[in-house]
Amino acid sequence: MPRRAFVEQIMGLPISLHLRGPEATGSAVEHAVRTAFSRLRSDDAEFSTYRNDSAVSRIQRGELAVADASPRLRQVVALCEDASARTDGAFSAWLPAEGVIRFDPSGLVKGWAVEEAFESLVRDLAELDRYDALLSAGGDVVVSCSRTDTPDWTIAVEDPTDRGRLLTSVPLRAGAVATSGTAARGAHVLDPSSGHPATGLLSATVIGPSLTWADVYATALLARGGDAPWFDALRADHLALLVRPDGTTVRLP
């Protein structure tokens, strides 16, 4: 089965796309891939907290009101409010920083933007033929399989205490795996209730049907050190793997 990988640097990290299908090396597939990467670059331009000209940076400086922002940004704000409600406040886009409350939706935006681009790509590929696709972006992976003659995708989960070692691997034909942790960027996730870096876990990995929500739940689990009574309501279609500071693991459920 022809297979091809594409990699681009977007959102400050390498984003890789893997395809399996009859014309994986063809020009029509390349066009669909370029369109997906273009969507991600557009979202990065609007939502980045590192670009001074982004809409999020302008909101942080008080130059732009949410009500006057684009429909896409207002959609993200609504999703962040929903995420806060689903996690009993363990996830929040409004975080205390230097004595003020700062708007930072990046804990949701990456997973959401990657999933949106992936879904658009899958729709474009469906018009060409049957393809399997995997999109990976810094600990967030989403997959789809429209073929029946291919094996499952295998998603590896890294050990945060030894990045050369794997904790486990996940066979998947549809859905997402999202990991939030300290191994790559240190204690960068804040507990919304205190504004302090979350140190109760080394990593939290969530497997579920949607990358947007798997990413949100992984961030929320990390933020509160795995204290997550709200996760009980998700156990029908989500799994979580938590790594404590001493390296021991907890599986939910």
Description:
- This protein is of the alpha+beta class.
- The chain is built from 5 helices and 12 strands.
- It has an 8-stranded antiparallel β-sheet, covered by helices on one side.
- The longest helix is centred in the N-terminal third of the chain and has 21 residues, at about 25-45.
SSE blueprint and pairings:
Elements lengths: L2 E8 L2 E8 L6 H21 L7 H6 L10 H16 L7 E4 L2 E4 L2 H21 L5 E6 L2 E6 L7 E7 L2 E11 L1 E8 L21 E6 L2 H13 L15 E5 L5 E4 L1
Antiparallel strand pairs: 1-2, 2-5, 3-4, 5-6, 6-9, 7-8, 9-10, 10-11, 11-12
Helix pairs in contact: 1-4, 4-5
Spatial strand arrangement across the major sheet: 1-2-5-6-9-10-11-12
Strand content: 25-35%
Proportion in helices? 25-40%
* Low-confidence parts: none
Q: What shape does the CA trace take? A: globular
Number of helical segments with 4 or more residues: 5
**Largest pleated sheet:** 8 strands, antiparallel
Order of helices and strands: EEHHHEEHEEEEEEHEE
Number of strands: 12
Q: What is the rounded distance between the termini?
A: 36 Å
Radius of gyration: 18 Å
Strand-pairing-aware structural class? alpha+beta
Mean pLDDT: 94
